[in-house]
Amino acid sequence: MSQRAIVQWNQWLSKGLGQTVLKSENAMLSSFLSDIYGKHLVLVGVPHQTPLIQNLNLPCHSLLTPVFHHAEAELKVIESNLYELPVASGSVDVAILPHTLEFVDNPRQLLTEACRIIKPEGHLLLCGFNPYSLWGLNKRWRARWTNLPAAPSLHQRVLKKWLHLSDFELVKQSFALYSPPIKNEAILKKLHWMEWLGQRCHLPCGAIYVLMARAKVVPLTPLRMRWKHSIAAMRMPTTIPGPTVRNAK
């Protein structure tokens, strides 16, 4: 995806349905990370997604983004492309990629980079649009009613496969936004039963999904020492040799 599409995505999140998406994802991420403790958290996304990390337990928050942004005093911003993350390997407790994989040309490479920077037993959270939902059934209909920048949806089945190949295990998953993308608040209130039913029955047809995975710790294989000779065949001296005394002539 081009830089222009990422900028449009950042602007789309600032109002209307974009705020609805952020509100739903903020609730899910807060629930997922309520019992996760650590120090360093990195959000790989755009500036308007910073509310997703403001109320989390981890003290050190950083935003890694390709979009120029005047950050607040308490937020550290790293301006970089999304192909090689300028973060040391195994230095992050939690990394969040909210729809970021949908706006890059090589999502597999970005996911590999995100897995690289996470500590053992650290967590990776991925947010994406579900292609099998009322928001994603028809691309033309979605573009007309949501004004969402064109971006390919990644099915969670593909992401789970990539996570497994990167030695990550799935911990949690959740869906949200079961109602159609309608901006009229009065109609949305009448369709609130759809959201209640989807959450109650855990239906996999919500407009957005969140996957939470944990980095596996590869156990070390102990190496056994191999003796060239068996211990039984080794002979120990029965007497301790002392100093040699010569008689003076």
Individual helix count: 7
Terminal CA distance reads 101 Å
CATH homologous superfamily caption = Vaccinia Virus protein VP39
What percent of residues adopt helix (DSSP H or I)? 25-40%
Secondary-structure element order, N to C: HHEEEEHEHHEHHE
Q: What top-tier CATH class fits best? A: Alpha Beta
CATH architecture: 3-Layer(aba) Sandwich
Largest sheet: 7 strands, mixed
Give me the Rg, rounded: 27 Å
State the oligomer.
Answer: single chain
SS-based class = alpha/beta
Spatial shape: globular
Description:
The chain is an alpha/beta fold. The chain has a single domain (3-215), classed as Rossmann fold, CATH 3.40.50. Helix content is 28%, strand content 20%. It contains 7 helices and 7 strands. It has helices at residues 3-12, 17-32, 107-116, 139-146, 156-165, 185-190, 192-201; strands at 40-44, 60-65, 76-79, 92-98, 118-129, 168-176, 208-215. A 7-stranded mixed beta sheet has the order 3-2-1-4-5-7-6, with helices on both faces. α3 (107-116) links the parallel β4 (92-98) and β5 (118-129). The mean pLDDT is 82.
Structural descriptors:
249 residues; Rossmann fold; 7-stranded mixed β-sheet; 7 strands; 28% helix; globular
Task: Provide a quick synopsis of the model.
With 249 residues, this protein is α/β, with parallel strands linked by helices.
Q: Which SSEs are present, and which pair or pack?
A:
Layout: H1 3-12, H2 17-32, E1 40-44, E2 60-65, E3 76-79, E4 92-98, H3 107-116, E5 118-129, H4 139-146, H5 156-165, E6 168-176, H6 185-190, H7 192-201, E7 208-215
Parallel strand pairs: 1-2, 1-4, 2-3, 4-5
Antiparallel strand pairs: 5-7, 6-7
